[in-house]
C-alpha cells in the first residue's frame, strides 16, 4: 500500500527533513553559516545592546501571548496567537544569539560566567534589570481586546523598524529583518482585523475595545525616544532611530482605529526610554519568574 503523506510529513519534508516547526528552531547554532563579523566602525557592545532591545521585546511579548493559550475566545484563535508567539520566539532566539556572539553581558552577575552567553543563557539567566524590553510588551494582557490593541501597536512599530533594518550594515540584523517583515506583516494584519471586528461590533465589544486602546496608549510614550546606543548605531548605518518610524506608526494606528469606529487618544508626550536602560516595573519580574523558573531550578538540565 502506498504511503499517504500526512500534514506532519509535509512539514518535515518542506525543510529537507530537519523538522522545523517555527522560524529559528531546529538549529544547534542559530547563526551557523552567517557572517557574524561586526561591521567596521561599530562598537560590539553597542551592537549587542541593540540586539538585546529587539530580542527582549520579542521574547517578552511572546511570553505574554502564550498566556492566552487555553484562554482565547476561540480554539482557532489560540492556535493563531500561539503561532504569533512562536514567530516572535524565533526572532528573539536569533537576536539574542547575535547579542551573545559579540560577547554582550559576558560578565553579567546573573550569568556568573566569563564565557560567551548563548541565547538560552540570555533568556533564562538574566535578572529583570538586565532586560532591555519596553513597557509596551511588559504590561499585563488585560482582556482580549486590550491584547489585540497591544499586538497591533507592537507589530506596527516592529514592522516599521524591521523594514528599515533590511538595509542594516550588520548582515545578521539585515537577514533577521528580511525574514521577520513577513511574519510581522501577518501579526499586524491579524491584530488589525480583531480591532476592526471588536471596535465596530456590538456596544459591549466597542466599549471594551476602546478601554483597551485607552489602556495601551500611554505605553507609547517611550517608544520613539532613542537611546544613546540607538543614536550611535543609526549614525553607523546599523540601527534605526525610533523617531524615524513615528509618522508611519501614527498613520497606521490612526487609520485602523478610525475604521474600527474607535477614538484615538491624544498621543502621549515623549518620555525617557526606561525599559531600554533596565528600569522596569514589577510586572516584568512576575513574568520572568514564570519564564525562567524551571531553567533556574534545574540549570544543568538539557532538553
UniProtKB/TrEMBL annotation:
Q: Which SUPFAM superfamilies match?
A: Ferritin-like (SSF47240)
GO molecular function annotation: phenylacetyl-CoA 1,2-epoxidase activity
Which UniProt keyword terms apply here? Oxidoreductase
- The residues forming a coiled coil are none
| EC class name | oxidoreductase
**InterPro entries given for it?**
Aromatic_CoA_ox/epox (IPR052703), Ferritin-like (IPR012347), Ferritin-like_SF (IPR009078), PaaA_PaaC (IPR007814), PaaC (IPR011882)
Superkingdom of the source species: Bacteria
Q: What is its EC number?
A: 1.14.13.149
Q: Does the keyword Oxidoreductase apply?
A: yes
Xref: PANTHER family: 1,2-PHENYLACETYL-COA EPOXIDASE, SUBUNIT C, PHENYLACETIC ACID DEGRADATION PROTEIN PAA
Which NCBIfam families is this protein grouped with? PA_CoA_Oxy3
UniProt-recorded name of the protein: 1,2-phenylacetyl-CoA epoxidase subunit PaaC
Give the source species.
Geodermatophilus maliterrae
Q: Which gene encodes it?
A: paaC
